[in-house]
Specification:
single chain, 6 helices, mainly alpha, 164 residues
Length: 164
């Protein structure tokens, strides 16, 4: 049975890592690099509740009330879930004395979610195959999730330092 402090640690690591990823995405956006509109994630999730998983184009799907907030909530909930995956694989001992490699590897592995689930379901095809620049989009997703992995490590490191 997981204790409340362990759950709080996982939540804090997930939120911290997702914040770092968002800082990275904001930097990219300011540099003119296209980034994901989180309203589209909310729209996709909203349509899941109505029984629709895949769309020809999520941008052309009917808007969902509150889709932007739902998208951001989903984004952070997913970050927390991925932090939970890291702890499930490496244990709470890792969170108490974090090392960079496990976090970055888990972060890199999480790119499977957008490439093989979300992009196809939102109309972009497997690994962005229906976009004008699939390889560039895949590399950008990989870089974003690698940043998320570093965020897992840095968040765990800060929490471990604060706990001492």
């Amino acid at each position: 049975m997981t204790r409340l402090p362990e759950i709080a640690t996982i939540i804090a690591i997930g939120i911290g890592a997702t914040v770092l990823m968002d800082v990275w995405l904001t930097f990219l956006k300011r540099m003119g690099v296209p980034t994901l509109n989180f309203a589209y994630i909310g729209r996709w999730v909203g349509h899941l509740f109505h029984g629709t998983f895949a769309h020809a184009s999520i941008g052309q799907a009917s808007p969902i009330p509150g889709e932007r907030a739902l998208g951001w909530l989903t984004h952070y909930a997913t970050g927390i879930a991925f932090a939970g995956l890291l702890i499930a694989i490496h244990g709470m001992e890792w969170a108490q004395s974090p090392t960079v490699l496990p976090a970055v590897l888990v972060g890199m592995a999480t790119v499977a979610a957008p490439l093989f689930v979300m992009q196809p379901a939102m109309g972009s095809g497997f690994a962005a195959s229906r976009t004008p620049t699939p390889l560039r989009n895949c590399m950008r997703s990989f870089a974003n999730h690698t940043v998320f992995g570093f965020g897992l490590y840095l968040s765990a490191l800060v929490i471990a330092c604060l706990a001492q």
